[in-house]
Amino acid sequence: MGIFGALTTAVSGLQAQSYALENISGNIANSQTTGYKRTDTSFADLVLSGDLNVNRQVAGSVQAFSRSSNDVQGTLQASSSGTSIAINGPGFFVVQDNTGQVDGKPTFGGGDLYTRRGDFTVDKNGYVVNGAGYYLKGLAVDSRTGNPTGSASEIIKLSNDFYPAEATTSVTYRANLPSAPQTANYVSGDESSWLLGASFGASVTADQSDAFIASSVSGDAVTVYDDKGTAYDVQFRWGKVTNENATSGAQDTWALYYLSDPTATGSEAAWTKVDANPSAAGTQNYVFNSDGALVTPTDGVTSIANLTIDGKSLGAVTLDHGTGLTQYADTNGGVTTKQLTQNGVSSGNVVSVSINDGGLVNATYSNGKSRTLYKVPVVSFYAENQLSHVDGGAYQQTVASGAPIAGEGEIVGSALEQSNVDIADEFSKMIVTQQAYSANTRVVSASDSMMQDTLSMVR
Predict the structure, then answer these.
(1) Of 64, 159, 324, 346, which one's alpha carbon is 20 to 30 angstroms from that of 52?
(2) Is 73 in a helix, a strand, or coil?
(3) Beta bridge partners of 401
């Protein structure tokens, strides 16, 4: 081939180095693009001569090819957004692009795409979409069991459905009762000033209310709910009925009352006693042994057969004290509440959405409850670098990449994967590429000069 072969080879070198520079330029331009994977350049030599004589073969020309780095992890960086997610390890999120819009809402019908760009947010229609406009897919989750309802992923769409109200069925109440309660009637050294004795029975009337309050101590209050989510305040008061007496064998006993009718008058019941042992005959008191531990109820659990507040029946409510109801000395003489909670809630609307570690999409409601709605899957490929690039950091499946399989990467919540481009490395490659390009131009110049010399010989 001679001079013309050298010229052709030099031109192929210019084309290859230009191609490499284009990839370097794209990498640098996307060095701050979330989830971007750099594209490297590979060179392959082309043998121009088919001569079997190895002594007559020439170096040949060159071709440039792209080499993806989809399997190279970018740095994970914390994000303040609760819907931003990243993958630690191999794998991709499954997304789709919208095919159009109807009445301002996106429509879908295209195939699945795959991306590691996790800057997702919730749009006005409730879809979870990333910064490039791709819509996240997930597995719907049964809110009761927390398990996926199927194996096929779907476009995640969040609704503004209310969290339903739940009636209170259990109250957890843990507290310490003072061995010497300092009631309004209390006089130091005079136990009779605060002992209730037999003055009050299963209920306290409105006429007796002042005397009852003066002889008892507050046990705090808790808000409970009916099946429609209506709130009711339950106020508790404790009164010491008997004091421990070694001679008579009496133990410390207490009566617990709740305010059942704050508007009661005259002989109407205002306070109702909690039966510490509903299975026994009569209305039982709470009993403590000499070291302050609860004896009755034996398991620390009792039940209010029909909790009634201001004429509203809330049904049976369990009162769970566990081992957390005690009677120890307290210099303040009051009830020290350690826990007073219940399991009912009012209805609530969605106030925030987040995707936590593991890819669970959770909605938080105004009533303080949360619910898992979807699980974001991670898929992988046997040949990740054979995926076809599309705009916005997404990829398409190809024959060379194989079909998607379950991914091994873990989803990290409130995080984003940065570009895997190393600016310093790209600058180094750019310098080498520039020098190689310049060298090829010298070959073109030299070939041109030699051709001019050859032509001059025949003149």
Answers:
(1) 64
(2) coil
(3) none
The pair of three-digit structure tokens given for residue 441, joined into one six-digit string? 């131009």
Q: In angstroms, rounded to a whole number, what is the distance separating the alpha carbons of residues 115 and 34? A: 10
pTM of the entire predicted model? 0.76
Distance CA 450, CA 4 (A): 10
- Angle (CA) 171-172-175 rounded to 5° is 130
Which residue in this structure is represented by tokens 């009631």? 183
Residues in the chain: 459
Over the chain (459 residues), what is each successive 10-residue block's mean pLDDT?
78 91 95 95 78 65 91 95 96 95 87 96 95 96 83 91 93 95 78 61 91 92 95 95 70 93 94 91 89 93 94 95 94 94 94 94 93 95 95 95 92 96 95 93 86 80
Q: Yes or no: say if 404 and 137 are a contact pair by the CB < 8 Å rule.
A: no
Structure tokens at 397: 């499946």
Q: Does a cis peptide bond (omega within 30 degrees of 0) precede residue 297?
A: yes
Q: Which residue has 């009852």 as its token pair?
A: 212
Beta-bridge mates of residue 78: 415
The answer to whether 252 touches 239, Cβ cutoff 8 Å, is no
Residues pairing with 395 in the sheet: 114, 389
The token pair at 314 is 């809330």
Q: What are phi and psi of 44, to 5 degrees?
A: -130, 135
Backbone angles phi, psi at 209, to 5 degrees: -60, -45
